[in-house]
């Protein structure tokens, strides 16, 4: 005679074998231990190219728009499955999904028996339920451009990579922004993660498709954490992925409307709590992957992005230095057990910041942070055609400093002659200020005989109309503006940076 638990597992196995069962709120025990209710389920085929995974909690205002964007995909509906896991919504989310989901060919709509309190459980359950060769996460308040699935799937198949990503568009109530991930700015059929220092700078579910076998064979799951679960999960995916494909196309639209931001804010969402949970993720990743060939790229992210750019160089840090400083010291101590954190600072300013954090002199730290926040308002020191910041009589090389030497305009052809000895220039990015997802990236040519001289050419008639921002990228895909005087249709911003007006 079967035990109750074995009976539940048997029932679930049968359910997996026959998705067409449309259970009316029957409860099943998932083999991973999750109690769930199957709301609706259907399938018309046994093979799926892609599994779209959505977890929801009180998304009644936005979920219909999310589902409509998936219904509008250019990929055939029979080629993908939709899996929705609801974390016990208390609004009308279930009713909206129940009505809409029957428009899809292949779907599973389930609900956890009790609220999990973390994004991890619904996402992990959706992974376990998925059958597609590739998976893509979509939040229940976001949406996809109509060609997103087909675009990413084609990248993966044609280039034989395990991971594909593109640009994420952030839509606010009053403006449009985009993700700053460097690899989204440039299209690569196949690129090794170890070749880009900033490969770990964007670890989040939005705008990427992955081979499901990479996740399942390596048992990669979201940790049950309030914050930092995305960082840990996608870092693990990267550690088990050699090559990725990228596109410059927008493949994901993130909802940042005022009414949505107010809904997702949490009392627990403080800088201190976030960085404490991130620290737990770092400890786990260090212990498991410190010998991985691309682990150094994660250290660059932790030190330069998460600690320094994200939290240290902020007025809020000065205000909360008593509570935040010990946490930063703890993270650096964790890193320094196996590495020298100073080796992974992007520049000499960041090296000095790390030294101050380790020494723990709060007055010195406050002085330095205040200097850093206003450093670009102060005159630079010039030595051997290189530019330096000066702080307490010490000189720190500016990471990037690009000078415009000449503009040549002939019909619609524009040539920029640039000069930089602080860093090696690689690309010029030209983006529309109102819509930064409208942009182009051009290669910058290095002078064969004159060190520090570069040229780049573009056609004005190929650019969008309006004010355009010009940004130079170096080999590590760091960005900097061009310093210039006003010429032709170019203009100066408040800080004297170069812009362009396409009339």
TrEMBL record:
Residues 51-216 form the Glycosyltransferase 2-like domain. Its EC number is 2.4.1.212. It holds the Pfam family Glycos_transf_2. It comes from the Bacteria. Keywords: Glycosyltransferase, Transferase. One of its GO terms (molecular function) is hyaluronan synthase activity. Transmembrane segments: none annotated. Belongs to the glycosyltransferase 2 family. This is Glycosyl transferase. It comes from Staphylococcus saprophyticus. The gene is hyaD_1.
């Amino acid at each position: 005679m079967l035990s109750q638990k074995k009976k539940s597992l048997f029932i679930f196995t049968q359910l997996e074998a026959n998705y067409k069962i449309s259970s009316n709120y029957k409860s099943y025990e998932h083999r991973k231990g999750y109690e769930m209710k199957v709301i609706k389920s259907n399938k018309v085929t046994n093979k799926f190219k892609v599994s779209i995974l959505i977890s929801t909690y009180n998304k009644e205002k936005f979920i219909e728009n999310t589902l409509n964007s998936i219904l509008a995909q250019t990929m055939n509906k029979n080629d993908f499955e939709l899996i929705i896991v609801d974390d016990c919504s208390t609004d009308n989310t279930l009713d909206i999904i129940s009505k809409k989901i029957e428009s899809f060919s292949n779907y599973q709509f389930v609900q956890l028996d009790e609220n999990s309190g973390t994004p991890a459980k619904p996402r992990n359950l959706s992974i376990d339920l998925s059958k597609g060769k590739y998976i893509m996460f979509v939040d229940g308040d976001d949406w996809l451009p109509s060609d997103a699935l087909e675009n990413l799937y084609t990248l993966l198949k044609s280039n034989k990579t395990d991971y594909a990503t593109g640009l994420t568009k952030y839509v606010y109530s009053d403006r449009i922004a985009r993700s700053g991930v460097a690899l989204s700015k440039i299209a690569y059929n196949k690129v090794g993660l170890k070749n880009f220092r900033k490969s770990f700078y964007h670890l989040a579910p939005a705008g990427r498709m992955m081979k499901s076998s990479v996740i399942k064979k390596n048992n990669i799951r979201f940790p049950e954490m309030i914050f930092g679960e995305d960082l840990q999960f996608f870092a693990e995916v990267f550690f088990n992925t050699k090559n990725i494909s990228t596109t410059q196309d927008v493949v994901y639209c993130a909802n940042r409307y005022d009414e949505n931001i107010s809904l997702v804010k949490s009392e627990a969402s403080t800088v201190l709590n976030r960085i404490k949970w991130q620290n737990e993720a770092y400890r786990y990743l260090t212990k498991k992957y410190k010998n991985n060939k691309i682990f150094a790229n994660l250290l660059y992210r932790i030190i330069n992005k998460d600690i320094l750019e994200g939290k240290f160089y902020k007025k809020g840090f000065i205000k909360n230095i008593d509570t935040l400083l010990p946490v930063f010291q703890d993270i650096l101590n964790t890193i320094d057990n196996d590495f020298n954190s100073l080796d992974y600072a992007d520049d000499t300013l960041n090296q000095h910041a790390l030294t101050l954090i380790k020494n723990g002199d709060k007055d010195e730290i406050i002085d330095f942070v205040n200097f850093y926040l206003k450093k670009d308002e102060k005159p630079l020191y010039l030595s051997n055609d290189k530019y330096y910041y000066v702080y307490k009589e010490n000189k720190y090389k500016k990471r990037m400093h690009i000078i415009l030497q000449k503009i040549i305009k002939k019909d619609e052809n524009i040539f920029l002659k640039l000069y930089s000895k602080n860093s090696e220039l690689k690309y010029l990015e030209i983006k529309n200020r109102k819509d930064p997802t409208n942009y182009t990236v051009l290669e910058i040519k290095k002078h064969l005989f004159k060190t520090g001289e570069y040229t780049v050419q573009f056609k004005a008639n190929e650019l969008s109309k309006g004010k355009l921002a010009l940004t130079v990228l170096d080999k590590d895909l760091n960005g900097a503006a061009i310093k210039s005087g006003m010429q032709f249709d170019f203009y100066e911003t408040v800080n004297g940076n170069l812009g362009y007006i396409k009339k």
